[in-house]
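Continued from yesterday's entry.
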Amino acid sequence: MSQENFPAVGGDTLTACLRHWAAATPDAPALTFADFAADPAGRRRTLTWRQLAERVDAAAAALPVSPGDRVAVLCPQGPDYVVGFLAAVTAGAIAVPLFDPGLPGHAGRLAAVLADCAPSAVVTTAAARPAVEEFLGRDLAIVAADRPEPVRPGPAPTAAPDDVAYLQYTSGSTRSPAGVVLTHANVLANVTQAVRGLGLDPAAATTVSWLPLFHDMGLVLGLITPLALGLRSVLMDPLAFVERPVRWLELLGDHPGGWSAAPNFAFHYCASRIRDVDRARLRLGRVTAIVNGAEPINPDVLDRFHTAFAAAGYRPEMTRPAYGLAEATVFVTTGPAAAPRVTTFDRDALATGTARPAGHGVQLVACGAPAGQLVALVDPETAVTLPDGSVGEIWVHGPNVGDGYWRKPLESTETFGARLAGGLPEGPWLRTGDLGVRHDGELYIAGRIKDLIIVDGRNHYPQDVEATAASADAAIRPGSVAAFAVAGTDTEAVVVVAEHRGHADLAEPAERALAAAIRRRVSDAHGLALRDVLLVPPGRVPRTSSGKIARGACRDRYLAGDYGKALAR
C-alpha cells in the first residue's frame, strides 16, 4: 500500500508532530478534558497546541534521564497524563504508559510491570505523588507533570523514527504482562492505517474517548492519533463513564465529526443503563464512527445498541467492528462504512476448522480488512497459509508491528519472528495467537488458540459456550461467564464459572436448578457435558486490565479451590 494514499501526519516522530502543530496551529484546541469529578456537568479544561507543547517541554526538562531510559507514567486520567507521556518521549526516554497506583485491583500487575521495565524515573501529579512514593517504596526520581522543576538545561535529544517511543504492556489474558517495543515509525504507521481503513476525514474529525490511556486502544485513540493528525482530543475519566455512560455519547454528540472506540461491553452497558429521558437529549446523527474492538463482538448487543439510539440519529453503519492487538500497535482490520455484517456459520463445521454459512449455528461479526498491512490465516503447526473459509491462526505483517517484547528475546522470536512456509513475504510475521477465518473478503475472529477447548477431537470456542451458558437465565451477567478446559480422564473436561446478579439471595435448590439448566443448554447446543458449573457473585470472574475475561486466571482459581465446592450434577 503506497504511503501517498495515507493521510498526512505532522512529522516522522511523536515529538516532531507536537512541534509541527504547535507551530502551524498554535491557538487551536489540542486537548479538552471533561472533568466530571469536579463538576457533575463535566467541567471543560482545554489546552491549545502551544500550551500543550509548553507544558510538555517544562516537564521533559524536569526528567533526569538519558536516551533509552524508561519513564513510567503513573498519572490519573486527564491532561497531566498526556503531558507526562509526551514529556517522557520528548526527553529522549522510553515512555511506559501505566496508571495511578490507586486504581483498584491492579496493584499486582503494576508491581510486575515496574519490575520488568526498571524505570529510571516516574512522572505523576502533585496530588498523586504521596501515593506513588508509598507504592514504590524505593528511591526513584519522581516528577510531577503539573508542577515540574527543571533540572536539565538546553534542548532534549532529537528522536529518530526507528527510536523506541514507548512500551505497551499487554493485558495478560494468556500470559504475564510483557512490554511490546513500539517505535515512532510503528505508531505513526498504525495511525495512518487505521484512519485510512475507517475512511475518516482528518480535517473534520474529533476523537472522543473514556478509555484508559494506559490501554493500547485508549492511548492511540485519545492521545497519539490526535497528536499525529492535529485533531482535537476530548477525554473523560473511565469512572465517569461507568457512573453515567450517557456522558460519553453526550460528548460525541457535542462535537460534529466525533469518532470513538470501545469494547463490546460498553455498547451493552449504554443500551441497558441509559434512560429514555437521557436518550431523548442525545444528538448522534453527527457521529462519524464508533469502533468496536478489544474483545469478541456480540451481534445481539449491536442490535440492542442500534435500536436503543436510532431515535437519537445513530445509524448501524456508524459502528465499525475491528480487530487488533498491542503487538501490532493496536489496529489490524476495520470494517467498511456499512452496517456490521453478521454471518451464521455451521457449528459442527466450525468445530472441525471450516467456516460454512448456515441457517442456524454460530453467529460471528465481520471485522473488516487490513489497510497498509498483510493478514494471513495460517496452519500454526505447518506455517502454511490456508484458503478462505478455513480456520487458522491470524498472522500479521506490516510497518505497525512492534520490534518484540522488552528484554524477552525467546518470546520475541517466537511471536514476532514467524516465517511462512513457501509464502510471500516469507517473514517476519507476527503470530497473534488468535484464530480467525476469511469469508467474503472480511476477517472473522473465532477465539484464542490457548483458550480453545478440545473435547473428543472437536474444537469448541469458549466465548460461544459462554454465550450459551449466559442465555440460561436473565440474572446471569452477560459478558461475565468463563468457560475453560481442565484435565479429564481421557480427554479435556469443561468448567463454566458464571456471575449471578442475585447470588447472595439464591437458595441452594434454585442454584442447583439453574446449574442444571446451564448444563442442558450447553449439551443441546454444543454436545458438551460440563464437568462443573459454578455460580458466583458479581466481580468474581477475573478480567484483564482491558476488561477481557481472564480464562487462565479463572481456571487457576478453580483448581486452587477459590470458588468452593462445585454444584452437584
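--- second protein ---
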Amino acid sequence: MAKSPLLGNRLRRLRKERNITQVELADRLGISASYLNLLEHNRRSITVPLLLHLSKILKVDPQVFSPQEEGHLIGEITDALKDPLFAEDEFTDEEIAEMAADAPALSSAFKKAYDAFKAAQTDLQLLSERLSQDFLFAGSSFRLRTLVTSIMSSTEIVHDNDDLGPKERKEFLQIALKDSEALNDTVNEMLGVVGDGSLTGKSWAPSPNEAVSDFIQARNNYFDPIEQAAAEFRATFNEHNLLTPPMMMEYLQEKHGIQIEFASRDSHNTEATLYDEKNHLLVLSKSLPQSSVKFHLALLCGQLNFTPLFEDLVNAPELPTEAAKQKGIAALSNYFAGAFLFPYDVFFKSAEDLRYDIELLQQQFDGSFEQICHRLTTLMKPGSSGVPFHLIRSDVAGNISKRFSASGLRIPRYGNSCPRWVLHAAFLTPGALCPQISEMPDGQRFFSIARTVTKPSLGYAQPKRHYAISIGCDIAEAHRLIYADGLNLAAPKTVMPVGITCRLCERSNCAQRAAPPPPQTRQGTPQKRNISPGIGDF
C-alpha cells in the first residue's frame, strides 16, 4: 500500500480513542511496538493485510483508512496557507496532514473561515468596480444629488418665506416628503450590494455551485439510494435491453401525459430542451444527438418520479441555502439519469473487462464521451468500486465548470488550473485523446487523459460551445487503464512537471508561469538573471 501522511495519524487517533496502548495493539497485531510506532509516525507503509487486521481489532470499516476525504481537506488547507495572508508563516506537509487527521472539525472550521475571507475579498473588489464603473451606481448617484438638492430647495422655501399661505406651505412640504422617501429608496439601492451580510454578517455561505461541489465530494460521488431507485425504475422497462428514446417517450406519454416534439428554428433557438410544465409539453432541439436525447428524457423521468428523494438527500450541511439545495437537486437528477442509463453492476463489469476503454464503453452503452466519464467517477460502491478517478471540465478560457477528485489530485477552488495540465493541451488537437503522466511539486504522480467535446449548435446565432474533459487517477492505479499500455509507469521516459495553479505553485523554473510563486518560496536576487522576464517572473 502506498504511503500516506494520514494513515499513521488516523491509526494513532483510533488507538487512543479505544484506550489501547501501543504495546497492547502491537501484541495483538503480531508486530513489535517499535514498528507500530513507526507506522503511527508515517515512517512505514501500512500493508493491505495489516490494514484488514487493524480494522478487525479496532472494529472499524477498512474504508475509515481511505485518505480521500482528508486528502481533499488537506489540499484545501494547503491552498489557503499559500495565500499571501500567511506569507510570514511556514507549515510543512506533515503538520498540515496531522492537523487534518487529528482535528478534522478544526480543519473544516479553518477552511470555512478562509472561504469567508475570500468571499469578502471578492465582494470588496466587485463593490469597488461597481462604484467606479457600473452605470446603475452612476444613475443612483445622480438621483441622490438631484433629490438632496430638491429637498434642500423645498425646505429653504418654507423656511425663508414667512408670507407663504398654508396651502403653498403644505405643497412644498409634500414635495420634500416625497423626495425624502425617494432618497431613502435610492440609498437602500446603492447599499443593497452589501446588504445581504456577505461582507460582515454571519450569513455567509459558499456559492451554490461551490456548495454542490463540496456536497458531492464529501459523499465521494456515490449515492446508493439513487442507484437503487434507478435500478428499480429501469426494471419497469426491459432491463436486459438497451434503452431507446422511443421507449422513454412512450413511458412519459402513457404515465405522465407528456407530449414530446422536436423543435424547428421557428419554435425556439435558445435552449436544447424546453419543458412546459403547465401544458405537459417537452420540446427537444433537432440538434441533439441520440445520446443527449436519451439523457434528457432520463433526466425528466427522474425529476417527475424521484424529486422527493432528491429533496431528502439535499438536506445536508454542505447545502445551507435554498439556492444551493436547488442546485443540489439538479445535480442529483443528472446523477439519476446516468445511473438509469448505465446500470451500476453491468457498467462496472464492462468498465473492468474493457479496462476503462471509454470509446468501447460509448459503443456498448450508446453514451457520449462526457456521460461515460461522469459515470466512471461514480463507481465507488463498497465491495465493487472502480478506479478512483478525478474529473475536470474546462472551457477555452480555462474556467473550470466541473471538478471532482477521488484520486487525490488537488483541483484549484479559486482561479484557473496549471497551464501544463493535459486538460489545456487537448484544445491543440481537437477530438484527439491526449495522455499525460504528471508530477506535482511534492512528487505525487498522476496519469490523465483529456479530449475536447463540442456541444451542438442551435443555429448560426448560437455558436458551439467547446470544452476539454480530463479524467485520470493516481499513477499506482494507471495499470488498470488501457491508455497506459506500453508505458513504463515505474520509470516513465516523459513526465510533465505541473502544479495546481500558478499562485500556489512552488516551481521557480516554469516558463509558463502567469503569476509569481507563493511568497514563502521566493529566493533572494540571483547572481544571474533573465534580462527578459516573463509575466510571472519577479
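The chain has a mean pLDDT of 81. The longest strand covers residues 445-455. Will compare against the first tomorrow.
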